[in-house]
Amino acid sequence: WVASIPFFYTSGFDMLPSLMVLVLTTGLSFLVVTPFSTAIVSSGYKGGMDLDVMAHPVESTLTDLMITTCYVLGLHFYFSFGSIAYTAIAVFDVLCFVMCAILAFLGRRSSDFLNTIKESLMALTICSIVVNVTGILLLNASTRLEEIKEVFIVYPALIGTVGHVGLMVGSVLTTGLALGSLNAPTRKFTLIAPEIAGIWFGSAVIFALFSAITSFFYHQMEPTLFLRFTVFLMLVNVLACLAILLISIGIAMLTYARGLDPDAFAMPIRSSLADCATTAAILIALTIFPIVV
After folding, report:
1. pLDDT of 234
2. pLDDT of residue 186
3. Which long-range contacts (CB under 8 A, 24 or more apart) does 138-142 make?
């Protein structure tokens, strides 16, 4: 919220309603997502699933959907019930801040709590800047995509898929480094090259599926348009996945070397950078392979 003020607003007070809705969304999401995520990961662990490849991406996708739902419901409540909604949201937000203050007071002497807060704040600061850069890139791309509405339709799916690629690759790397199966000083990441290749190939298949679905609904699978859109998405996939692969390796090595928590520090930054990398990849792909489908 604070990081976006210089980009879009002249005064923080102009964004007070949006801050209230964001805090409402955060509070509701925490109440809904936390037990849900715990259940998903616990079930995956008990079922013998690979948490890096299966449980985390599924949980991430479903929690994104739940958070979006909380945000939409919060906006609907704010705009539909006037002063009643404003007062109710304000009370809820104050309760959230009070609970945070109480938890901070109770955990002020815990080194684990303080380290988590420090790493989370550092990660969220970086994420807020990256997210605003992503928004600016998307805003600049909107004029170039006016005649290619199909890209707008698949955009959320693209950033989600690339984000999952980064999540899976990063999780595999951090797990391998933590368990000692990867030798960080000598960079023997070739040991997990088959896994990385499999993840990348899977993302390419998903991108092709996005092209097929979009072409079916918009062009009844007209061969030429389907082929052009598929080539475009494959180019986006190569650019975005290559970028997020390098980013994931760099973040995994930095996290391991600095002794940072992968959950509190690496995952949020990697996810934000995946969104930015995908948006930039779309712009670059439009320059290399301009299409009008």
Report:
1. 93
2. 47
3. 138/279, 140/283, 141/279, 141/282, 141/283, 141/286
Q: Tokens representing 231?
A: 């080539």
CB 243 within 8 A of CB 281: yes
Interior/surface letters 9-31, b for 16+ CB within 10 angstroms, e for the rest: eeeeeebeeeebbebbbbbbbee
Give me the helices (H) in the chain, please: 5-8, 16-46, 56-80, 82-106, 111-142, 149-179, 193-219, 223-258, 267-288
Burial tier of 45 (Cβ tally within 10 Å: 0-12, 13-18, 19+): exposed
Structural tokens at position 14:
């102009």
pLDDT tens-digit series, residues 219-251 = 666 788 888 888 999 999 999 999 988 888 888
Cβ(37)–Cβ(44) under 8 Å?
A: no
